[in-house]
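Running this now, will post back.
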Amino acid sequence: MNRVYIKTYGCQMNERDSEAVGAMLRRRGYSLVDHESDADVVLLNTCSVRDQAEQKAIGKTGYLAKRKRTDPGFILGIMGCMAQNRGEELADRLPDLDLLVGTQKFHAVPDHLDNILETQKGLGPQPITIVDLDAEEGSQNTIREHLADKRQVSAFVSIMQGCNMNCAFCIVPKTRGQERARPIGAIVNEIEELADGGTKEVTLLGQIVNSYGRREIPIREGKSPFVQLLERVQDIKGIERIRFTSPHPRGFRQDLIEAYRDLSKLCEYVHLPAQSGSTRMLKLMNRPYSRERYLEIVDSLRNAVPDMYFSTDIIVGFPGEKERDFEETVDLFRTVAYDMAFVFKYSIRSGTPAATMEDQVPQRLKEERNQRLLRLLEKSSLVRNESLVGTTQEILIEGKAKRGNLYRGKTRGFRTCLVPATERLIGELVPVCIHRGTASALYGDIVLGGVDTVEPLLPQTL
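Update: finished.
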């Protein structure tokens, strides 16, 4: 009765939370399994950013609840953003739930499961859904556990929780609370432990990651707390690459731009959410920058690192979006030449200002605009990957590819590369000569003995 399966919906923050819960459970004596059919306990870590994510989780919960009719010992729980957002409504709607845990109580899951199991053995009160959604001071410091028996070539590290922004479309401030930063020393200690276990690359996580510590940690020598943290991670022996997500354009000041220039381990890849290429739409979204300011940041980053790789988030069909607004977003795509993007069709989230805005965009238009941007992105990604053919790229081998006798890895620019290799190279940085590029991947061969890297071409404007 101690086999647990955790299914995760949503972002890297959710993935990291699930991993921490899994590590805490394993330390308590539970075992983690890879399939829900093998589990005595299924925990769904949920997302509330889009309605579709919530509906998937609710549908999965309904499906799993059927199992309890023939297996009363089966335990079913919901964690994370949907639990926090919808609260006791879920407990009423889904009476078969055993556990409902909010975003600041992940660390309490082992205790709650222990209590449920004691109840089932007759050692506790009658079964009841445990609901734990309260805020807890210091909860940002509890997401620090990693799976000790699993080598992580690349690891996520949570450096903060919460968000103080008030974007009109976003429910995250409600589900994650206000910004709360972990101490720099605690983060460094966690990464040092990862490095000792063989981790070569870390991705620092936060809702607005470059707002890290701005209320708790003073600026020193003109450098923000986030840049101070980057400098400390740069000095950790064994860590070869640093990434972070998800930042906000407002936090890209000169010190962070210069960090890309000066810190050798900070990869020349930046996720820079735009949401729209129209200043008018950005104002409606309550995003505190203009199209012009966004492009200034792009230019500054390219001046610091000419071969910078860019990804972004875009929302199409936000209330009030006219064709001219969308065309400005199309033009932004062409101007920046994004290497990757997450394009979302606007989804109404109750409790946000945008939910009650007039001039909602028809679903048909959302779909058309979504598909148009995806086609443009495919072209941009293909241009970038074809520009790398003939160059030698440093690849961090992460594991076996799903198909063929190939291994997968990433360039410093976050491009996926498939290469013939062996298992012993997992976790190693190897030079790879690129001989083919598609819109989704690079293909190459390991360079024996190493050669001088050929400088890649800059992405072309479409």
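Residues 363-387 form the longest helix (25 residues). More later if anyone needs it.
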